[in-house]
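To close the section, here is one more complete example, presented without commentary so you can practise reading it yourself. The ligand is zinc ion.
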Amino acid sequence: MRRLNLASIAKVATLFAVSGLAITACSPPPLEGVTAYEGGRLIIGNGSAPIENATFVVDGSEIIAVGPTGEVEVPEGAGRVSLAGKTVMPTIINTHMHAYQSREEFTQDLKRRAYFGESAAMSLGLDSPEIVAMRGETIPGAAHFFSAGLGITAPEPGRSFAPYTPPYHITTPEEGRTAVQEQAALNVDIIKIWVDDRGGQYAKLTPELYGPIIEEANTHGLRVTAHIFALEDAKGLLKAGVSSFAHSIRDTDADDEVMELFAQHPEFVLVPNLGGRGAPTDLTWLRGSLPDDEIAKLEEGNVERPDAQAAFGIQARNLVKMNDAGVSIAFGTDGSTPWASHVEMEDMVAAGMTPMEVIVSATQNSAAFLRMENAGTLEVGKSADFIVLDANPLDNITNTRMISDVYLRGEAVDRATYP
Ligand SMILES: [Zn+2]
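Output:
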């Protein structure tokens, strides 16, 4: 990475002086790869108040200075981009989605995610080894990819996992441990388990099965995230040392016992993944991005669903309770829709979190959950991954959809055409 080299600037100045040219008449030598972004409102992503008139300087892919305009020294020769009237926030990090199972389709999906402001996405448990091998790659104009590889569940006869790769179906602790060992050998980022009887249709993983899975994962330095539905399973998993839930408690309201278990596990991360409010949502903002026939198809399914509304009510109350209790909240959408983050953020605010809390969950908290040390906030030393918005999402969270530009690793994503 190029750094500012004051010595070479001084040398150029000396040359001009020696050659008899008036330095003041010359523009400074351009500093290649250094750009100052000036005058926008900056949401850092760590929950602190936004800087209303900010300047930040990017050298290559890295933020090297940030602060109020006037307090940040812009290096001579740096490129300058005015962001007056705009709001800047960190890119979105999605810790629960599912990858397409062909390299070509998934590469396109990662580009679509970048188009909508996502810089990283973790696929939870339905990935073939070929897809897992894509993790850690940097594809120009595309989000980074994390993977749980193949997850582990109890047998679910007759249930299709298409279009994804089916997970492990285990019935003994040994099978669970073997599955973890195989996935650890692929260097997955986390182990995914499902603990859900799907409305009484299947036998679910018991503590005797998931306990050894969590233990085996931990011996390989891996954490376990669990798809759950029921309060009692949440308790069992917390007692067994699970690191995260990929969905929240959905059958009933959280009780004192589970809140006490959360308090005893401060490292635990909740990904609420609300799954929609069961009410029609605004899709007009997708016009100009998605083809019209695709939007028309989405509108057909964009209807009132009373059962989903009741489920959302439970989840919303639980989310607020956990957020108020200080449980770390990260961000995920489930599914394979590249723009779903913007709906999930709206739903989290509808549930009762503030726009700032939701943005922190989708940026700083999710980067921490994925152990991305150089991402999640717009601070010195972090990767220059940011979204330039035409309106302030702290006023209305749906303003995250008013995207003017997306920058990944210091480079503007080409948004002229939808990928
Ligand atoms: Zn999922």
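Once you have examined the tokens, check your reading against these statements. Residues 96, 98, 124, 334 surround zinc ion (CB under 6 Å). The first strand starts at residue 34 and ends at 42.
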